[in-house]
Specification:
Distance between the termini: 23 Å
Number of helices: 8
Shape: globular
Largest sheet: 3 strands, antiparallel
Length: 229
């Protein structure tokens, strides 16, 4: 989903140090991975974070629902199988949310028990098409992109509601765990926003570009500040 630009610019503005840990197609959750070669990534990163006394805040960012709902998350009709395994065993439709919630809780508890503050970012709205191309086509037709291409907030909640509930439960039950609702900055008037001032906020259908990242970065910065980060 790419929040890199927004987070980095805020960190540099306030003279804060930062580190990014990224592994392709791997959610930042203990025991979960989308490919066998990445199945130790989250464990290794978590161990590093736990034992580094200089790291006080940990931000967890992912296209979370994409792992849980498969291609349905990206607006397609087929391919709804979960996109991750649990200790190398493929997850199925019946157990995916229970396994995900338990493992995310284990991740958060391990980090907070080591004195870290954990911030979980909500997933952004995504699209089944290339957003910049869609914007160009709408402009060619004389149609406002933020009307013609956008989604109602209700549709976002229908797909992501269960996940948001998991995040909320963690924030209420595990001390020093907070949810950053970054998706709210990509909605206006009850509909999603794909462009600003004639410029796309996305680089494709499910990754923000620099402008979109900057739009969300301020909310991340404010949340860290509000909770002592």
């Amino acid at each position: 989903m790419s929040l890199f630009d927004g987070v980095v610019s805020r960190a540099e503005k306030y003279h804060l140090a930062y580190k990014f840990f990224v592994c392709w197609s791997t959610p930042p959750v203990l025991g979960l991975a989308s490919t066998l070669k990445n199945n130790r990534h989250s464990e290794d990163v978590c161990e590093y974070l736990v034992h580094d006394p200089h790291i006080k805040n940990v931000i967890l960012i992912a296209n979370w629902t994409g792992y849980l709902e498969g291609q349905r998350f990206f607006g397609r009709k087929l391919g709804h199988e979960p996109q991750f395994s649990f200790h190398e065993v493929r997850v199925n439709q019946g157990n995916k949310y229970a396994i995900f919630e338990a493992q995310l809780r284990d991740t958060v508890v391990k980090l907070t028990s080591a004195g870290k503050r954990v911030f979980i970012c909500t997933p952004i709205p995504v699209y089944s098409f290339n957003v910049p191309r869609g914007i160009n086509e709408m402009e060619r037709q004389g149609r406002p992109p933020n009307v013609a291409l956008s989604h109602p907030l209700a549709d976002y909640l229908a797909v992501n509601g269960r996940l948001l509930g998991i995040f909320q439960n963690l924030s209420e039950s595990v001390p020093n765990t907070y949810v950053i609702p970054i998706h709210l900055d990509l909605f206006a008037g009850g509909r999603s926003v794909v462009e600003e001032g004639g410029h796309s906020l996305y680089q494709d259908g499910h990754h923000l570009d620099g402008r979109g990242s900057q739009r969300l970065g301020e909310r991340v910065s404010q949340s860290l500040t509000a909770h002592g980060g």
